[in-house]
Design goal:
Helix content: over 70%
Order of helices and strands: HHH
Largest sheet: none
Strand content: under 5%
Number of domains: 1
Number of strands: 0
Distance between the termini: 42 Å
Shape: elongated
Number of helices: 3
Length: 97
């Protein structure tokens, strides 16, 4: 028994690339996904701007350091996952016919 993923003779990277995406419901569904992405990115920019204002006003006091740490955690965790998944979905949407 091994811990390797089963790929049915296909390279794991190729297997992921060839997996179908969930139905997007045509152009309206695709536009809705893009709107969700816009909302997520706006929230991210808002948080960045809040942290920027805090650092400008207070320097590196404990509250600003905590905000910077939270923002770093967000970028390390959430944003990396959002970027990876969104890139794949957008590429696949671009290839829909």
């Amino acid at each position: 028994m091994t811990n390797e993923r089963k790929t049915n003779g296909v390279d794991a990277g190729d297997a992921r690339e060839d997996t179908p995406i969930i139905s997007v419901g045509g152009p309206d569904g695709a536009a809705n996904r893009i709107a969700q992405l816009c909302a997520t990115l706006r929230r991210t920019v808002d948080v960045c701007e809040q942290v920027e204002r805090l650092v400008r006003a207070r320097g590196f006091d404990p509250q600003a350091r905590a905000a910077l740490s939270e923002l770093a955690d967000y970028f390390d965790g959430n944003l990396a996952m959002i970027a990876a998944g969104t890139g794949r979905v957008l590429r696949r949407l671009a290839n829909l016919r």
